[in-house]
Design goal:
By secondary structure, this protein is α/β, with parallel strands linked by helices. The chain has a single domain, classed as Aldolase class I (TIM Barrel, Alpha-Beta Barrel), CATH 3.20.20. Helices cover 29% and strands 14% of the residues. A seven-stranded parallel beta sheet has the order 1-2-3-4-5-6-7, with helices on one face. It has a two-stranded antiparallel sheet with strand order 8-9. α3 links the parallel β3 and β4 (110-115). α1 (37-46) packs parallel to α2 (67-78) and α6 (164-174) runs parallel beside α9 (207-219).
């Protein structure tokens, strides 16, 4: 873990195990590992109480079972003002009692970020390499019953971009209660790098689908953001939705970015993107 007191990108890696094997996962799963709970509890107790944000990630954090609740309880005790985001595939929350245990912690500022990669079971389950579509949906509904704050995410690549507008309709009609929707450019590392020939599409080539998706959700007053994409490949009407989302320790800018008038507003690139990025990257001018 790299911890910076004023960073918005601090995160605890609580496990490297996972019950999915997503084709574009930047953090491939392991089968066996030492339990990280005690060291993470110690880290939490040492963090500055002014820490603004802390992610809980993996692997799949819910595979820790009740140890996950120890982590969140410790955050509530030692970091009462810190916003938490739990990144999970949501499958374990199909278990009503497990979802209830999370809700009973009553953390005042916890968001649960759950990926849904398609509006159909075949596409979603192919991407995660297991049967999880309906379990994830049930998990989302269970969490919603307990009034938990839920964010839905997707990663855009060759297997997901065409159905983005249909995916947006599915989200709106089935999960109008979610507090945020994130459309994410792909990080080309880990399994994404291994499967790059199947997954890579120049982001410029899916802008039409992205624009339709964001417009649809925004018109319905849903809170939507674009992560990991550069301003020079986005039409101006999408700029208000673009976020500087890449963690500072793996955030880079290309040589051509140094001449861009919007360098400071743009989110830049993952360090793993040095040899894999849009061919339409170019400096922008304010006039």
């Amino acid at each position: 873990m790299l911890y910076e007191k004023n960073s918005l990108h601090n995160a605890l890696m609580v496990t490297e195990r996972c019950n999915c094997n997503c084709l574009m996962c930047p953090q491939p799963r392991v089968k066996e590992e030492e339990n990280k709970t005690e060291i993470n509890l110690k880290l939490i107790s040492l963090m500055d109480k002014a820490t603004k944000y802390l992610g809980i990630t993996g692997g799949e954090p819910t595979l820790m079972g009740d140890d996950l609740f120890k982590i969140i309880s410790a955050c509530k005790k030692y970091l009462p003002e810190t916003a938490l985001e739990l990144l999970t595939n949501g499958i374990q929350f199909e278990n009503f009692e497990y979802a209830k245990k999370l809700a009973c912690l009553e953390h005042p500022n916890l968001t649960i970020g759950i990926p849904l990669y398609a509006d159909t079971d075949l596409e979603h389950d192919h991407i995660i390499q297991t049967k999880g579509f309906y379990k994830t949906i049930q998990g989302i509904y269970n969490l919603a019953l307990f009034k938990q704050k839920i964010e839905i995410r997707t990663v855009i690549h060759r297997l997901t971009y065409e159905r983005l507008p249909k995916w947006a309709e599915f989200i709106y009609h089935n999960f109008p209660f979610v507090i945020h929707i994130a459309l994410m450019g792909m990080e080309t590392i880990g399994l994404a790098r291994k499967n790059i020939d199947r997954l890579w599409i120049d982001p410029y080539d899916y802008i039409s689908q992205l624009e339709k998706t964001v417009e649809y959700l925004d018109q319905r007053l849903m809170n939507v953001s674009i992560y990991n994409l550069q301003l020079c490949i986005l039409p101006r009407d999408l700029w208000p939705f673009a976020r500087k989302s890449i963690s500072s320790w793996k955030n880079i800018y290309l040589e051509e970015c140094q001449q861009c008038d919007f360098h400071d507003e743009c989110g830049g690139f993952f360090s793993s993107s040095k040899d894999k990025y849009s061919k339409y990257i170019h400096p922008l001018r304010r006039n």
